[in-house]
Each structure stands twice: as C-alpha cells, then as structure tokens.
Design goal:
Chain lengths: 397, 397
C-alpha cells in the first residue's frame, strides 16, 4: 500500500516534479497538466484470493484503508465475447467490457468511489462536479452513500431526464448558462471559497479509480495475451481524457512491476463532431487546441477543450497507442449493431469504440471495446424511425 | 445436473402430478397453476471454485449444458449494507440485493437467460413476452444475443421511453389495447400458432433462473445466518409471483439438500393500490381474486390478477412467510430514502421492499431488500417538486 505522505503526493508528467495535494487546484502550476498520484517505488503485485477488487489491487491504489461502507459495489464488470459481431464485421476476438452495469450505469463510479474516499478522509462535507450526465449521477450517488452533500453544475441544454437522475440522490443541481471551460475553472474557485471538493473529470483520485478497469481486463485475458506475440487492442471513448489516462496507467503499472511483458495498443476514440485530441494526434502536435463548434449526439464525450488532452497525447505516444475519430453515422450504426446483434444497449459515446474498430479493421489479437455508459440515459436520442413499434386491439393481433 | 427427461418434466404443486413440457401452455390442466421444473431427486450441493454462477449452482439448474455465449453477464449482484438507513429507521442488519445492475437493469435477466437457453435448445426462432417494461427489455436483449427474433406486447399506456428501451434491440413491439389478463392467455395461443416461445412472467425456466439470486444471498450471508438462532428476512416485491416463487424454491432446494437448517422468512410485498395476493393472504384464502381498479405508480408490480398468485400463497405458507402491502405515500418516500441516504436509485416497485420493512419493524436478524429494477426506466415518474434544481448564469453562481 501507499505510505501516508505518498497518498497526498502528486506529480506532473510534463516536468516530472512532485507537488503537494491541493484538491482545489490539482494542476501543474507550470504546465497546467492534471497532476497524477505518484506511484509507490516499491515492488507491487496483484493479490490472490481477495474478496473485492480493492483488496486484489490494493498495491496499486492510493489509500491506506478502503472503507467498504462507501462502495456501491462498482467494478467487477463482465468482459463479453461479441461472437455475432465478430463474424459479421470480420473482427475476430471482439470483446466488450460492459461498464454500463456499474451502480449508476457508467464507468464513472470506479473513479467517484476513490475520490469520495479521499473527501471523507479530508473531512470535506460537500463534493461537487460539472457534468453532461454520467458524472452527475455518479457523484451524487456516492455522496449520498457517504452522507455528504453534493453540488452539480450542468449545461443549460442538459435533458430533464439526466438532471432528474442526479437530483434524485438529493444533490443540488444548477443549470449554468455560459462557457463550459470557464465553468470548469470557476468550479475550483468556488470549491476553495466554500470548501467543496470538486471531483471533476481529471481529478487525480478519479483517475486512480479508473485503473481498476484496466487490471480487470488484464486478469480476464491473462498474462499470455500480453506476451508480445499478439497485440491486444483496447478501444476507449475519450472526453476529458481521464478514463483513458487511468487505463494506460494501469497497464504501465503492471509493466513496470514485471507483471506483463507487452502493453496493449490503446485506441482513443472521439466523435468526428468533437475531436480535439484526435485532431492534435493526427497533426503530430503535443498540445490540444479548442475544437470549434462541437456537434455530436455522443454528448458524454463532447468536450471541445479537454483539460487532460495534452497528458493523454503524451501517454498515448509513450504506450504506442493512437487516437482516431468516427462519423455520426458510424456512431449511430454501431450503437444499433451492439443492441440488435449483441443485446447491449449503450449510449452513443460508448458506440464510438465499435465504430473505430470497424474503421481500423482486424488486429493481431483480442480487441476490447470499453462500453462506458448505459443507453437508458439517452433513450430520448434514439431515432424512432429505427424502431419497429405498432399498435392494435387485442382482437386484431 | 438434471438428466435429459427431467429437464422437460414439469410438475404442478397443487396436484403433485408430473406433466410433459409444453412451452405454449405451461399450466396445470386441472388447477391452472404454473407448472414448475421438477427437481432432481439425487443429492445436490453448491460447487466450489467455479468461475460462473451457472457452474456453482449447476446441481440446482435445469440444463445439461449452459451456453455462456447466450449470457450477458447477469447475476453476481452486490449485497450492500444500508448502514445509514439502518440507523435512521431503527432496522439493524438492513441489506439490499442490488438487482438493478443486471445487464438490462432488472432481476428479469436471471430468468430470461435460462428461458432463452431453452428456446435455443428447442430450435425456436422467435421468442415473445408481455410486459409493462422490464421484461420487454430483458427478453429483447437476450433474444438479440442469441440471434432470435422477438415479439413484445405492451399495454397501450406504456411510456415511449420504456417501449424504445426494448425496441432498440430489434424487437417488434406491439402496443395492445384491451384487457391484460386476456392478452396473457391469447399470447400462448399466438405462440402455438406461430411457433413463438412466449416466455411470460411465470414461465417455468424463468423461475429456475430467479433461483440464482437466492443462492447468491445464501452464500453472501453464509450458513450461520440460517442456523435457526436468528431469522433472516427477505423482502420481495410481488407482481405475477414468479420472482418470489423462484427465491423460495432456491431456499427450499438448499434445505432439502441439507445445506441450510432454517429457512429465511419471506415477505412478499405489493402496492396497496394493486394488492391481490396480499389481500388473499390477509383473508387466509387459498386463491387470489382479481383486484378491482388497480392504481399505483409501482407499474412493474401492477398485476391485478397474477397467474402465479395461488402458487405463491401456497409456497409462502409452507415456508412460514407472509404477504403485505404498502401505501403509495410510503412507496415514494422509500424510493427517495434509498436514493438520498444510500445512493441507490430504484423504481417504485423495488421501493415497496423498504416500505414493508419500515411497517414491520426490526426482526431478529438480517433483513434483505430485493431491489428489483433500476430507477432510470421510470425517471418520468419522479415528482419534480422533490428535486433541487436551479438555473443561473456563470457570473451569478
């Protein structure tokens, strides 16, 4: 486990410097990059025969003591073989990591539970976030479980359903008119003024939590899948970058500790209608520019100027991964294919993973699509013309 | 495992007679009760160190071979301690079995996967069901995974969101005007005419699948919880009765095989606005009468004349259990409490379990609430006055 000072010790990957934890400004003062928890330098390993993922992966997680009372049972999600799509699309070894079955319906829960543990440890009484949907519900739910208040800022055009599915946990929800990036910065100021821990998209503890999904994939596929003879590909929808950063860090951890030989190939995916990181990657640039006029139905990954963009680019290149983007048409088609052929109803943001695999074509080994969030929160976006619904009287059937 | 003939051998608990399987009429020709799969007479046990629940509980399940390709990763749901509500409501040992994290958001998936396995074994190409929501999505999803067509009948007043969340899997959905009980009977006729396996609420294979939730609860609590010194209570929302029947059968199986000493106390719960089984139980009657003018927001358990009602009553009395009902006000209050205090957003039908525990007061041991379905499918039913939502400009925050 991490020792006490390490837990609060963050580092910037741009300058390599360490910084003390400040939950109201978890960014490098020089480079502006999100700070990450500094890993322990001693040898770490996955533990055997433990009851929970937190015991199995304790060596890699940033706490002295995990309080199971703050958990809603997140993680341990299924890795499913997509046999029918594999044949139909010519993508042998196609798998889906179904993050939709987390307690609030998205991968965010893996990160929220860690950040909330930190909030409780710090004695903070209110947590907050900015969200287009999934993070709102996740933060509000875990705050409720921990007995904390929560304050959620959402964009003014967020649907009533998404707002209600966060407010139902007792959160105070504020629809804010104005620029989203400015709101992101303002939230940390408000946090400092009011002593609210804003656990936003690239919070260092959130990112630590996202690592657990990576360890689970490694364990499900086994070390032989990472022996260098084949290459596992992992397709990850990218918004602010936190999720992909966490997954890459998980595998880097394992490699550094001699647990695996060869890294998987990470494929970060954005919607073509809002693809700032993919554009920077294609240009070979080291930094992300604001994406003009974003427009996509993949709302959960519609972030025109992601705060973790540069860090994502750096890590992706270090890992030998890549970024790509997919069209709206391909996204909606992929969403429908996952439902109709495999019984998996995800949101459009998740479907970008399959769309990207279709564009790239077959690899040399297993392909894992990360399905990040449930389609139940975006039902209103489904085109009714794609559905087969009729009406009749009992006698006419 | 069951031998081949046994798998297709059903029995009526009213007359004790065996009947051959007819998927288009799985009811006793004499008593009209739903037929159940006849358990094997040889000694059965829970297996150690198996990867899936189907391997662990294979002795108790009705197949020769489970095909994991037809699974979406259902089951293995968390049993969570509700520490804050336990203190607040004076209900020590309060737990929730979170069935909302099944692949389509409800416990139905446990049953659907077994019925679909049977459909594939029988060479049926189309499956169907009648549903107010959860069963529609579940049946459509597993049919998609198996490459089967699906036909879903829904009541004409079913919300657009619920219909879309089933139709998205490629199902043909028909909104039917007319009497629901008549539609139930008519569906089996249509099934026979068109060779469609209507896997409705009390399908014998569905009920077999629901048993897995019972085995999981037993394993999570351990045999000491059932040693007779304390008494575990299990609160189960009741609609057609299939779920409660499955859970009771699971524990009866374990008792018959010497795995546990003392049965839990089952508490079946209905909404007072549609409580046919609870009324019959209170009257001491052996059979259920049609409930006049049903009216409740707990749509998922609003079944005025449940086909498994009499069988539920019989088994409940054999097990020393009881039926109760709770008011609309108590249901909505319990739904809110679960979200605000414990971070669990369930539908009103699930919330009846907590409402009943509040009415009954503390027992002598652990209390398990079965949270049957996700609140995300009933967001439109939330009273907006209960939510804290404001709007402002960025500069006004």
């Amino acid at each position: 486990m991490y020792t006490v000072p390490l837990m609060n010790r963050l580092a910037c990957l741009a300058c390599g410097k360490a910084y003390p934890l400040d939950i109201h400004d978890p960014f490098c003062p020089v480079h502006g990059w999100p700070l990450l928890v500094r890993p322990s330098s001693r040898r770490r390993r996955i533990k055997d025969s433990a009851d929970s993922i937190y015991e199995r992966y304790a060596d890699f997680l940033p706490w002295r003591r995990f309080d199971p009372a703050l958990s809603l049972g997140e993680g341990g999600t299924p890795l499913l073989a997509l046999r029918r799509l594999a044949v139909e699309l010519g993508l042998p070894g196609l798998l889906a990591k179904n993050e939709m079955v987390n307690p609030t319906g998205s991968f965010k829960d893996r990160g929220t539970v860690v950040a909330v543990q930190k909030a409780v440890e710090l004695g903070v009484h209110c947590v907050g976030t900015i969200s287009t949907g999934n993070m709102a519900g996740s933060t509000a739910a875990y705050a409720a479980k921990a007995g904390l208040k929560s304050l959620i800022f959402v964009k003014e055009d967020t649907s009533r359903e998404k707002i209600a599915s966060a407010a139902v946990y007792g959160a105070s929800v504020i629809k804010v008119r104005g620029d989203y990036a400015a709101l992101f910065r303002r939230s940390f100021e408000i946090g400092r003024e009011r002593r609210i821990y804003f656990m936003n998209s690239v919070d260092p503890f959130r990112i630590e939590g996202y690592k657990t999904g990576g360890y689970e994939i490694f364990e499900a596929l086994g070390p032989d899948a990472f022996d260098g003879r084949q290459r596992v590909r992992i397709f990850v929808p990218v918004s602010a970058g936190g999720h992909l950063i966490g997954l890459m860090r998980a595998f880097l951890d394992l490699k550094e500790n001699g647990v695996l030989r060869s890294l998987p190939r990470f494929v970060g995916v954005q919607a073509a209608g809002c693809a700032p990181v993919a554009r920077a990657f294609a240009r070979g640039a080291a930094s992300v520019k604001r994406f003009p006029r974003p427009r996509t139905t993949a709302h959960a990954i519609s972030n025109p100027f992601p705060p973790g963009g540069d860090l994502t680019l750096r890590l992706l290149r270090e890992c030998g991964g890549l970024m790509t983007s997919v069209s709206e048409r391909a996204i909606l088609r992929a969403q429908s294919l996952l439902a109709v052929r495999e019984g998996l109803f995800c949101d459009p943001a998740s479907a970008v993973a399959l769309a990207a695999a279709q564009v790239l074509g077959p690899g040399s080994g297993t392909d894992v699509l990360i399905l990040t969030g449930s389609g139940l929160k975006t039902v209103e976006d489904i085109d009714p013309r794609a559905l087969n619904i009729r009406e009749c009287g009992l006698e006419e059937i």
